[in-house]
Amino acid sequence: FQAVFGPIREKRSVTANARLWLLHTAASEVTGYTPEEAHEEMLCAHLGYTEKERVSPWTGEVEMKRIPNKRSSTRDKKEFAKFMDFVEQFYGEKLGVWLEVAA
Q1: How far apart are CA 6 and CA 86, in angstroms?
Q2: E strands along 1-103, which residues?
């Protein structure tokens, strides 16, 4: 048995994750995207993406699919906070969507 130790990485909070999904849900009401699609778009916009060819299961045609380079679930607390700031600013400026700050 061998133990490997590395730096401690603080994970995002459940509250921060819930806030992110409330934002995606609010954005989906404006855009027509599902919250999951909005999440994927924000990941691609903030963390970059790779395009991959795939065959559409509906049309059978080859299409390009954007795949985020990183997932929000693997971000530490600091990186997740930067992603949240990006999402909140983007939705506020581009879509007029924001959440009230809890008092």
Answers
A1: 28
A2: 49-55, 62-68
- Model confidence over 54-85: pLDDT tens digits? 998 889 999 999 999 999 999 999 999 999 99
Assigned token pair, 86: 């990006």
Closest to 27 in 3D by CA, of 83, 75, 99: 99
Closest residue by Cα to residue 65 from 57, 76, 79, 55: 55
**27/22 Cα distance (integer angstroms):** 9
Alpha-carbon torsion, ordered 79, 84, 86, 88, to 10 deg: -170
- Please state the pTM of the whole predicted model: 0.82
- 62, 54 contact by CB (below 8 A): yes
Selection from 36, 48, 24 nearest residue 99 by Cα: 24
Give the single-character DSSP code of 72: G
Amino acid identity of residue 44, one-letter, is C
